[in-house]
Amino acid sequence: MMSIDWKKLGxxxxxxxxxxxxxxxxxxKDAKKVYTNCTAAALRARxxxxxxxxxxxxxxxxxxxEAKQINEDRAAQEESCCVDDDxxxxxxxxx
Length: 95
Hints:
The chain is mostly helical and 95 residues long.
């Protein structure tokens, strides 16, 4: 005949009981209140992070624009130096 493993049967019954109690606890009004407060806190944190990200992006755009302007100014200055050098060489050759 078949022997019954009471230990396994007891663990199974305990698991069902614990699972049922867990579902009741997790779906209670107090638990829902905790979930709501945690979600609200996460949304506030998200908003704060998004404000920081926006600020960093704006600063990065400003830095990029200034860097481009510096490079344009430098290129224009180098070009004017080259033009001056060429005109000096042309005038020296004419003499």
